Give the backbone structure.
Amino acid sequence: MPLSKICLHWSAGASYPCEVDLKAYHFLVDKDGKVYQGLFKPEDNLICKPNKYAMHCGGGNTGCIGLSALGMAGFDLKDKKTEYPLTKIQVEAFCKLAAELCIKYGIKVSPETVFTHYEFGQKHPKTRSYGKIDFTYLPFLPNLEKDRIGDLLRNKISWYIIQIKKGE
Ligand SMILES: [Zn+2]
């Protein structure tokens, strides 16, 4: 089974990565749009051996690349407040990174292959991913409904794929 999926997360932590963040995801993007490589490579999630892969998406880690936008600590859907809001620059860099990975691994963008952690949990209610709230809110688009954020991110990723291919 190849790497066939990408799960889009926010870290629910601070705006810059800590050890725990680096262990949980393959790639991370800080509030300034800088990309970090996690401790594990996407290939480590082909066969998930205990403590040797990025545990980012409970019930769906095998063959799945984990990307995380750093931030949103303390956020909940009721108050919608956090000291570490995601930024526009960050989400653009995050979608560009996802586009590069889609090209590298031959992943076509669809809700089945590129999804938010929230979407995965909604589709798989018996997994530990159920009830995850990343992404259910974009601080710079506060009126965007939570069930439309996955599509917004996929549209951005598709746009970046076209731009990258044009530039080749
Ligand atoms: Zn997540």
